[in-house]
Design goal:
Length: 167
Amino acid sequence: MRTWSGRVRSVVSDPFERFAAQCELRVTVEPISLVPRDVLAPPADADEYFLVTLTGHRPEAGSIRLVVVMPPSTKIRTPTARDALWWLAADAWAIERSEADMKRWADTYEYALGSTATERLFERQVQQTSILRALLCKEHYQRLLELYEREVSASRKNTRTVDENGG
């Protein structure tokens, strides 16, 4: 069983990786098996699953655990701090934008309001956002959300430019 654990180095070009290093976040990545699975599918075509744990320098703040799925087409075969932080920021950003109102949050994704699955996911993301806020402290938490928003805005801008230029 491979496990990678460590502090993220600060000499990296990715803004999420730099953020993790600046905030002294510890990322632990452990490959896990998924069951049930299609035992007849070729292993080269199978997704890989990892348990990613993110902790800060204050143990009392707790940790966040995610299962990250890596499709076989992914060149990088192990999740990074960026993978975890991007998704955590995306979920927290949606909770913050909806002001933790389930109807507004569900409308964002066009999820069925009143569905127990929608309610479970919402509650899980509210709890995850609360832990992320405690893990990062207020100023770092806001920086992470701003980092996410800048990246998504830049991506939208690039997509519009390609569309406008007929690409």
